[in-house]
Structures are given as structure tokens and as C-alpha cells.
Amino acid sequence: MINESFNTNIIDSNADSPIRGIVLQKLRAFNKLLDALSEKNFGIMCAIEYIDDVIEVDSSEQRTKITAEQDKLNVKSFSMNSHQVINSIRIFFDNWREKTMNSESIKFVFYTNTVIAKERMTALLTENSVKLPERPILKLLIEKEYDKALPVFKIIFKDYYISQHEQNLKKEEKEKIEIFQQIINQVTDEEWKLFLNLIDWNFEQEDEKILIASVKDKIGKLCDEYDVKLRYIDSIFNEIMSMIEMGTFQDDFLNKVVHVAQLKVLFLEKARIVQSEEYLDPAHQKWDDICCEDIRNLKEKVESVCNQYGEDIEDLQDDYVEGAYEQEHHNNLKAVKAFKYRIYKLCEREIRKAMKVSDTTDMSKIQIDNFVSTMTDKCETLISDKAKTYNTIPFKDRDMIRKTILILFEECYLAFDKGGTVNG
């Protein structure tokens, strides 16, 4: 397991970072995940503030590869003497020598927005009678000119390494400093070269502001690929940033990481929403505008025009309850509203016609049942026709159409007489 491959307790490297630094970490992890999704590499997962600022695990090949990254924002330049640089190397070194010293499956990344500066002579270098090379040490490390860089690098790093561990040892553990002295002194030049070859130095890179724009640009390209409207860019950006951040509050490694597949699922979900919205019946917007003042329920409306319906009215009530339950649990309430509005308008028109040609205030049970059946037939034809245009029709079966008509009677929208007023 990953958490068994690194020593995370030598020196606490997860100290609180400035807000800008945390944002940079999230953006760097975000960027890696987007690149993986674009490249269809579904073996990538990332986490922040675990072992390092950002960790990337690639399980796409037979051997799992790990990239541990330090991210540093700075307004000034960096040299080998800069705390941010040398401390990052110390973190890399501890992780490397603890479990992975002979592994080729790990890589380290130092990422910063700033430039490289030349080192200045220090008392430490003077004491060791070492002269600085003409070019900055970091430049020499990047270009792998180790013969020129190592004499100075080893003196600076060994001094820092020992002092850091000494500061972090408790009083009763001070004798353990000899262990760290032995560790650092036993590293050969060839081993130093092996270690330094694993570090990918990235200077003059995008800061968090530029990186945000870059990340959103990549989201936009993936939106095109997954048929997602560009208006969802900010929503996707915020959701993935939140995913990455929430991992920092988890204890288990697998809960800390964000897998590239999670991003794919998010894009597919947005695409589904877009498809739904594109073919959603706009009639749902009119449903909430209907003003109804008939407060009678289904039973009262039936009994007001037919005093002979009897106990069978309970069957109508049961059907209404079942229909209402199905509608309440549908995952697209806008589509349900449009469905109800279409049925309501057709039924309202049919009732008006019936009132003009006959007395609907005195109806028999058979007349009521036939009237509901006729309206169901006509509504079924209407819904079937609308389904040719809109792919989000929530219900297409005759039974649900009939139950919806009963719902409209129960919910005060329809009545056989003029006992109430409806404006819609």
C-alpha cells in the first residue's frame, strides 16, 4: 500500500500552508487529472497534503508509478540556499531513502512560478573552503552537471538535513541524531546522482491565477468532447476543486485520492443534464403560474355532481395516491410539471366543452367513469405525440395518465362543475 511505502512521520511536512499555496496544490492535482482524462489514462489518481504537496499515483501499467510534488509560490527568485528549495529536497530525500531508494517507480517534482538565482557565499561554505561555481547550483542540477554541483550541494544539504532533524527530535531522543548523520554521510556520489535524477525541476511555471485559466480552458475542451455546454465550466471547476479538498479530511488513503474516473463520471453526468434540458418540454415553466381557488378534493368534487358514486370512490382515491407517490419520486420534477400541465390544459378544454353541451352538475357514475376514460384516451394521444419532440416525458403509460387526471382533480386544478376558479 502507498501509506506503507513512505515515512510520513520523520518531520511533519504537512504544516498549514498559506491559502495561495493550498490553491496551487489543488490546481496542480486538478491539472494532472484533466491531462489524464484527456489522454484516456484511467490509472491516474491524485491527492494533496499527503506525503507531499501533491501526489500522483499511476497504476495504468504493470508497475505502479508515484510522483511526489512540492509546489512553491514566490515573488522572489530561488537559489539552493532558499528554504523552500532545500526543504523540498529534504522531503524528497526522506521519502526516497526510507523505502524506495532502489526503485525506479518514483519521481519527484519541484514546481514554482519563480526564477533561479545564483547562490551567495555563506559562512558554511567558507568554513568548508568551497567556492561557488560560476553558474547557479540549481541550473547545474537541472542540466545534470553533477561534478560541478555536488561539492557545494552536499555541504549545504547535509548541514540543513542534520539541523532539521535535530530540531525535531525530543530532548530524550537527541542521541538519535547520530543515526541521521550516519544516513546522510553514507550516501555515495553515485547514489546522490541517482536521487537527483528523480527530481523534475519546474521553474518559471504558471502561478495560481494563470493555472486557473489554463485548467478552465482544459475543462472547456473536455466539455466539447463530452457534449457538455460551456456554461458548466465554472460548475465543473468548483465541484472538482471541492473533491480534491475534501480528500484532505479523510484518514484512509483511498478516500484521500481523487481518481480520474470520478472526473469522467462528472462530465457524463453534466452531459446527461444538458441532454435533459435540451429536450425538456418548456411547459413546466407554466405549471407554477396556474392560480387555483377550488379547495375541494377529489371526493368532494365527485360527490358534488354525483351522489350515487358510492364506495367505488375509494378506488379513485387509491389511484390518486399511487400516482402522486410515483410523481414525487421521479428524478426530473420539471418534466413531471410539464407532463401535468399538458394533461391539465387538455382536460380543462374538454370539461369546458362538456359544460356547454350538457349539464355536468348532475352526472351518473357511468358518465363520470366514461368522461375520465375519454379524457385519458385524448391525453394519451397528446403525450404520445409530444414524446416525438421531447425525450424527457416522465410517464407514457395509460395508467399513469389516468392517475394524473385524478391527481388534478384532487389538487384543485380540475372539477366537473364551476365550484371553484382556475386561472391558467
UniProtKB/TrEMBL annotation:
Protein name: CD-NTase associated protein 4-like DNA endonuclease domain-containing protein
Record keywords: Coiled coil
Source species of the chain: Alkaliphilus metalliredigens (strain QYMF)
Superkingdom in the source lineage: Bacteria
Coiled-coil boundaries: 162-190
Source taxonomy: Bacteria, Bacillati, Bacillota, Clostridia, Peptostreptococcales
